[in-house]
Amino acid sequence: MLQNMSLLLVFCTLYCLPFMLQGSNQHERKPYIVYMGELPLARTYAPEDHHLNLLEATIGDHQLARESKIHSYGKSFNGFVARLLPYEAKKLLQEENVVSVFPNTHSRIHTTRSWDFLGMPLKVTRRHSKIESNIIVGLLDTGISLDCPSFNDTGYGPPPSTWKGKCITGANFTGCNNKVIGAKYFNLEQTASTSEDNNLSPADEEGHGTHTASTAAGVAVKGANLYGIGRGTARGGVPSARIAVYKVCWGSSGCSDMDMLAAFDEAIADGVNLISVSIGGTPRPFFSDPMAIGSFHAMKRGILTSCSAGNDGPSTMTVENVAPWILTVAASAIDRQFTTVVSLGDGKKVAGMSINTFSPKKNMYPLITGALASNVTGDSYGNASACDYGTLSKDKVMGRIVYCLGTGSQDYVINELGGAGTIMSVVEQSDYSTTTIIPGVFVDATTEGKTIDLYINSTKNAQAIIHKTISTRSPGSYIASFSSRGPQFITFNILKPDLAAPGLDILAGYSTLASITGYSEDNRHNFFNIISGTSMACPHAAGAAAYVKSFHPHWSPAAIKSALMTTATPMRIKDETAELGSGSGQINPVRALDPGLIYDINMNSYIAFLCKEGYNSTSIGILIGSKGFDCSSISSAQGTDGINYPSMHTQIMQANSSISAIFYRNVTNVGFANSTYKAKVTAPKGLSIVVVPDTLQFSRLNQELSFKVALKGPSMPKETKILSGSLEWNDSKHSVRSPIVVYKPMR
After folding, report:
1. For 67, phi and psi rounded to 5 degrees?
2. pLDDT digits over 296-332, tens only?
3. Is 535 a catalytic residue?
4. Residue among 208, 467, 552, 649 flagged as catalytic
5. In the chain, how many H helices and how many E strands?
6. The pLDDT of residue 14 is above 50
7. Backbone region of residue 547 per phi and psi (left: phi > 0; alpha: psi in -120 to 50; beta: other values)
8. How many other CB atoms are there within 10 angstroms of residue 379's CB atom?
9. Does residue 576 register a pLDDT over 80?
10. Which of 76, 110, 114, 141 is catalytic?
11. Do the bridges between strand 274-277 and strand 279-280 make them parallel or antiparallel, or are there none, so unpaired?
């Protein structure tokens, strides 16, 4: 059933889509990606020439074919981008060496004591700095700003001998150094057009790429802060590692599929050791998903890709970047939050959340509500109480703090009218802080908001002052409300996200080319900024993976991923989504150095998994560069999920169906040569979990043993949509934990 559903998804994406486009845009050329799998080993031709010949045969005109081709991929995998008519895309799909043809779309970026919180203090045990400095972390993002102190190369030698990349200069970017050893940009559609863009360069004009790069591998910078807020030592997970940047995101246009694939193609060939991508879009079947394609070829060459899970939570079925060879990362809180205090004229104080960098210049400011500041004489189509644009009188707002019922861009509106600040009342307080363009704070409507409202209505001379934000302790660690949740709908029985990492209110490097709010009206520029998002969680996981790799350089991407997942700390969940939000839990990089057992996955296992999921033999053969490949030539993937994954998950697709699932697993001993692991099962009411065998006896390192986990249970109650349990292998020193999740979609 599940296999057929996956096959239907593949079929629809690869075959139905070109037909749908043909009906509505049959005379309009648009960029399509033609993916052709692995580069042929025994080729006697240049891929670019082959691509042009294919195009010419398809289009029927040599000159038009040459003009239509945008880019060829040919360093790490095979394919090209061209402007095609829908029927031409369909025709190319029928070529024997083509895996998929899909329209180019645009994804979006998923927008310090976090490493201390994760148990990695500044003086944490590290391998020799020479080993760590040979690790190269590649980042696909908005570029980088070398002016940021996080990328100072003092004390660095030349790049590792394995490095084959380049540093491309351009506007606002004069070159690299021995810390940031590579920088490239990809804007293929713009580059291929006749128009010119003077800003084509690896320079980060948004700040996002600088923030993620410094989080993963920035050097330690003492006294880092945002206008005095969050002061401390900012650093990456592997401060001695090198950085290579691939700019693929461009302002409002986002991050193009074709550019991301080009960056993967280059990064793999350049010699990066890990890839961090804080970008995402709607999940697609793997052969039509640039993130899945690029990360597959990276994995094949021993490179782990860490990706953000998305910012569409807390709704379920919103998780992105779901391929099993990707490390998919949710965003969690740390034990610090930012609080902004408001003093009222009657002596009372209320507290809310924001990043307010402004120190007050007066003892008190006049305070007014949006309703009282209403522009009653103008043409207003909004809600003045909510301070909607166009509803307020500039004369009434000028020089005053305005209390607004609702959230949005009230600070922007009040700033435009000359207001002194804004207090925004929210029905449900957010768990992350937003930087305001003027003095501002978000308060809870039912508590602090009520106090403010009563005060304003009790006097004719209401006054207030918004203080500068301060750091306060918070309970930590929980999943951010915005962090996307599973389950996924591409591969039903793979739990995503895989784990969680800090993503709330993270202080890290920033580009001074961008204002700290992103507004052009904002004149504040800083080397550091505080941002929230799974974008911030992703490089934390990439840095942790690089840290593990520095101790275990020969571990496969799956082994590193397994070590991080099975040693993660189970999390406190604020809502009913449980592991659908956190996966295996909060990363613990130091524990991951010695996981005891690992769930490794080799290439044959991934291929068997793809066969089980319904991808056809021909496409898989092209993917891996094996002509004439047949799924029957390898052992069939067994069990509910068909892959040796560190977590276990099944979805009950039929209403009133009983629970029945079997997971086959292999674990490799990387702990003590002679060791005995006992299985400890935690099962919720209504779910039986049986492990066979329940004892694993190892006699040597790297020995591999197998077991199976059987789930049984009656149909889940109507009001229940998730059952959570776990399996923990324990040898008295190591605890190797796997979450077990049964999910029933609500109907």
Report:
1. -70, -30
2. 999 999 999 999 999 998 999 999 999 999 999 999 9
3. yes
4. 208
5. 20, 35
6. no
7. alpha
8. 6
9. no
10. 141
11. unpaired
